[in-house]
Amino acid sequence: MGKWNWQHSDWPNFTWDRQQIQARLPSVYHKQGYVAGLVNSLNGTGTLITKALTENIVASFAIEGEHLDATVISDEVERGFGRSSSCDDAKSVGILEGNAAALISNVFDKSSQDLILHRLGMWQRCMFERTYSPAQIGQPARWRTEDIKVVSGGIGDRKIHFEAPDASRVEIEMEAFLNWFVSSRQNTEIDSVSRAALAHLWFVTVHPFEDGNGRSARAVVDLAMFQTDENAVLYPMAPYILADRETYYRVLEQTQSSGLDITEWMVWFFKTLEHALDGAITRLNWSVEANSLVTMQPYNRLLTQQVRILVLLYDDADQNVISASQYAAINNVSKATATRHLTDLVNKGYLCVCEGRGRSTKYRLSGK
Predict the structure, then answer these.
(1) Is the pLDDT assigned to residue 33 strictly greater than 90?
(2) What local confidence, expressed as pLDDT, does residue 107 receive?
(3) Which of 264, 265, 257 shows the shortest CA–CA distance to 5?
């Protein structure tokens, strides 16, 4: 078997096809600009940010096979986003969801410091600790003390998928990484997206923790993107990584065992980021349209309750159809009023009847 990337004499001097990657930048920059324009046309993005943060951390944990309650996280993010956070803030919740909300809120906290040992330590505690004390706040990250190999198969067909640097090297490796992360922020020789992609690969290769390295690496990516574009909070990559997790792991494994040329990883990263940007643009476009629904001419204006339902149907994959009873419960109106509102939406072309008749009638978005 060949060397792992960290075993090469030039480590960590990664290389990639700069021309190929530079050719992808205009599309990414265009979409980032489009997101910025849509954000500027909205009165506020608080609800969208809460949803994006929730989806981000839920997906990042799910990639590792850990499933969180999105409703609890959303409530905690909404309560705490915009202020300085620590995992001690999750004390009242007392469950992993509270910690996860504190973690993702800290990643996108403009008042926090750059990536330092103490900030990594906060993320680490939020992922794993279940007890709290004042002494824990502000503690630096704790590096792993054991060597790590990722293997599969039994005797005779054992395969090593990845081997991290020796535990004795972690401290010096992370010192080099953190110094680079801070200095590269002002380095004009590397674009912001390539910097984020490189940070993810470098961090997960060193594998500095006993557990939680993937989640931490994705948080590092979020921070790197946020440092150059505050709208990055609205286009998290984790949900799109989760949707194609097999490719994510395959590309990571191949890149870590194929030398220091990481072009394949860079291409995958840019493609996935564009998927995330496309998703954000779709959601923001709908929010702009939803805002306009309440400012139309009187004869075509929609009620706030109707707009709420349209946004719900468009934005929630689990709520793709709705009945009069559900409409009534969500908007706290009578069933007769709900039926009248839904019929109006059908007449105006926003909804269509998709199944049932009478009390069992269900509605969905037209064209969906």
Answers:
(1) yes
(2) 95
(3) 257
**pLDDT at res. 298:** 58
Cβ-proximal residues to 322 (8 Å cutoff; 6+ apart), any chain: 309, 312, 313, 342, 362, 363, 364
Q: How many whole angstroms separate alpha carbon 244 and alpha carbon 239?
A: 9
- Give me the phi and psi of 355, to 5 degrees please: -165, 155
Tell me the whole-structure pTM to 2 decimals: 0.84
Residue 135: Cβ within 10 Å count? 7
Q: How far apart are the C-alpha atoms of 262 and 15, rounded to whole Å?
A: 6
- Select from 169, 117, 163 the least CA-distant residue to 142: 117
Please classify residue 252 by burial: count the beta carbons closer than 10 Å to its beta carbon, then call 0-12 exposed, 13-18 middle and 19+ buried: buried
Helix, coil or strand: residue 317:
coil
CB atoms within 10 A of CB 266: 24
- Could you tell me if 183 and 205 are in contact, meaning their C-beta atoms sit under 8 angstroms apart? no
Alpha-carbon distance of 368 to 366, in angstroms, equals: 6
Sign of the C-alpha dihedral computed for residues 19, 29, 237 and 229 taken in this order: positive
User: 């269509």: which residue's tokens?
Assistant: 352
User: How buried is 137 (Cβ within 10 angstroms: 0-12 exposed, 13-18 middle, 19+ buried)?
Assistant: middle
What are the tens digits of pLDDT across the range 206-252? 999 999 999 999 999 999 999 999 999 999 999 999 999 999 999 99
Residue whose tokens read 């910025």: 36
Cα 106 from Cα 56, distance rounded (Å): 13
DSSP state of 93: T
What pLDDT, on a 0 to 100 scale, did the predictor assign at position 137?
A: 55
Helix (H) / strand (E) containing 355: strand 351-355
Neighbours of 113 (CB within 10 A): 9
Placement of tokens 């909300």 in the chain:
101
